[in-house]
Specification:
Elements lengths: L10 H10 L21 H18 L6 H15 L10 E5 L6 E4 L3 E5 H6 L3 H16 L2 H4 L9 H13 L4 H11 L4 H25 L6 H13 L7 H5 L4 H11 L11 H13 L8 H10 L3 H17 L3 H14 L4 H13 L3 H14 L4 H13 L3 H12 L6 H13 L3 H14 L3 H12 L6 H22 L2
Parallel strand pairs: 1-3
Antiparallel strand pairs: 2-3
Helix pairs in contact: 1-7, 1-9, 2-7, 3-5, 5-9, 5-10, 9-12, 10-12, 13-15, 14-15, 15-16, 15-17, 16-17, 17-18, 17-19, 18-19, 19-20, 19-21, 20-21, 21-22, 22-23, 23-24
């Protein structure tokens, strides 16, 4: 679907730096481990995480790609299932940034940069980073960093941390600014961060092994990055914020020896998502049809061959050559007819060739087997909009929103479906929800006020809109008073 509107790698140390000056009255290092009863409550942590996520959606390069979202959420869920002390559902989301980076923040939100996925050689390496980030959340390291500020309100926390989080879209600039302004508390913060990093390494490797990944991947990835960038003047954000001394790499190698070595073969989904990122989201033309053709010519493993074919089809499609991309995807689908990556690209090709109804028929058949699947549902809704089946598209999107009520792309599609069918009341209401999800409350209120003009004599709709406007005003006031 062509829609896209170290370790804790960056955010944790940045947050600690930002909070160090606020903790001068109690410049103590909290105990490492599962959080004590006097730390920030789970409810407060969830409130802070939700508010920060709304800011992030509006100002950071989050990629709204159902396939990429589905892949990293599935990967994260597999790891969370093997983690102790997971107090709430985790939300994993992709950041369109070529830096090798990832970050965690309150409420189980974990952002993964596309550059990290491209740098990883296999899924176990990527999973080692994600498992480390999960450990920071389950061990509640962020919550412990504000234990000494018991009277801090959720909105004050958002004010204090929001700018730091949003700076993660440009990690080097963000960390440089924080370091310059927080020099006085830097040493204590670094020591605290190192302690947490050691625990996150330990817990992350344990989670990695229990989830069926290669436990040696953490040390392998650490060592590879340290060797590759050791003498470069501009290392990745990972190494800027979390240096990898030999002692840390040695610790990771020693810890992996506790677990039996797991032979993990190449993951088709990992190599397909990596090819998708290389073809579509790097922002540079390093990866083009010639790159994937060479990859295909030299590939020996069947998984790598399929990833090369998939990447080649994407680059042909994105350079307006759908007729050349179609036979490649058709062959891949013949061998693997339920593969969501191939079905997604089949849809894009069919829509590019104006075969809207065919796309709807194929996706409808597959959606019956996997109802409410993110990739199939949103591709089907998009194809239905193009085919003029607006009411059916609305039904599918609303059904999906029942299980994922804060999905930005779904509301964007919903607004498009209503607009195409000239349902102006509903269109403006859907647009209002899009703006609310990115914390643009004044614009959301404007959309609702416009929607009010289309209520005709419906007293119930007028009441609903007035109530929603009041909710938006309240949310906006709280943000303005931070």
């Amino acid at each position: 679907m062509r829609r896209s509107i170290v370790l804790c790698l960056c955010l944790l140390p940045a947050l600690v730096f930002a909070q160090a000056r606020l903790n001068n009255d109690k410049n103590e290092l909290p105990e490492i481990g599962v959080v004590a009863s006097n730390a920030i409550s789970i409810d407060k942590e969830l409130l802070v995480g939700e508010a920060l996520m709304r800011q992030l959606r509006g100002r950071a390069p989050i990629i709204n790609d159902p396939l990429l979202e589905e892949y990293i959420q599935d990967l994260g869920n597999r790891l969370v299932a093997q983690s102790d002390n997971a107090k709430f559902p985790f939300k994993f989301f992709p950041i369109g940034n070529n830096d090798i980076n990832a970050f965690a923040f309150y409420g189980g939100h974990i952002g993964i940069h596309t550059g990290l996925i491209v740098e990883a050689d296999n899924e176990s390496e990527l999973a080692s980073v994600v498992a480390h980030e999960i450990a920071h959340v389950t061990q509640r390291h962020l919550a412990r960093s504000i234990e000494s500020r018991q009277k801090t309100s959720p909105l004050q926390l958002v004010s204090m941390l929001g700018g730091v989080l949003l700076a993660m879209a440009d990690p080097e600039a963000g960390i440089a600014a924080i370091s310059a302004s927080q020099a006085a508390g830097a040493q204590a913060s670094i020591n605290y961060t190192r302690s947490n990093e050691k625990e996150a390494d330990r817990v992350g490797i344990e989670t990695l092994a229990h989830a069926g990944y290669d436990p040696s991947a953490a040390a392998t990835f650490f060592g590879k990055l340290a060797a590759k960038y050791r003498h470069q003047s501009k290392p990745p954000a990972f190494l800027l914020t979390h240096p990898l001394p030999e002692s840390r790499i040695a610790d990771a190698r020693a810890r992996q020896a506790i677990y039996p070595r797991i032979q993990v073969g190449p993951s088709l989904s990992f190599h397909l998502i990596k090819a998708r990122i290389q073809a579509r989201y790097t922002g540079i033309r390093t990866y083009d049809s010639s790159y994937f053709q060479a990859m295909l010519d030299n590939a020996e493993h069947p998984v790598i061959k399929k990833a090369a074919q998939y990447g080649l089809a994407l680059t042909l499609l994105d350079t307006e050559q759908p007729d050349k991309a179609k036979p490649i995807i058709d062959r891949l689908l013949q061998d693997d007819p339920e593969n969501l990556f191939y079905l997604d690209t089949f849809t894009d090709i069919a829509l590019a060739q104006k075969r809207h109804h065919e796309a709807v028929e194929v996706l409808t058949e597959h959606s019956l087997k996997q109802p409410r699947n993110r990739v199939l549902a949103l591709n089907l809704a998009n194809a239905m909009i193009k085919d003029g089946q607006h009411n059916e598209a609305v039904r599918i999107i609303k059904d999906y929103l029942l299980i994922n009520p804060e999905h930005l792309l779904s509301y964007q599609l919903l607004s498009e479906a209503y607009g195409e069918s000239r349902q102006m009341l509903e269109m403006h209401q859907a647009k209002a929800e899009v703006y609310a999800l990115i914390a643009a409350y004044p614009r959301a209120i404007d959309e609702l006020q416009t929607a009010y003009n289309f209520t005709a004599d419906s007293t119930l709709e007028k009441q609903r809109i007035r109530a929603r406007i009041e909710q938006m005003r309240d949310a906006d006031t709280r943000l303005r008073n931070l």
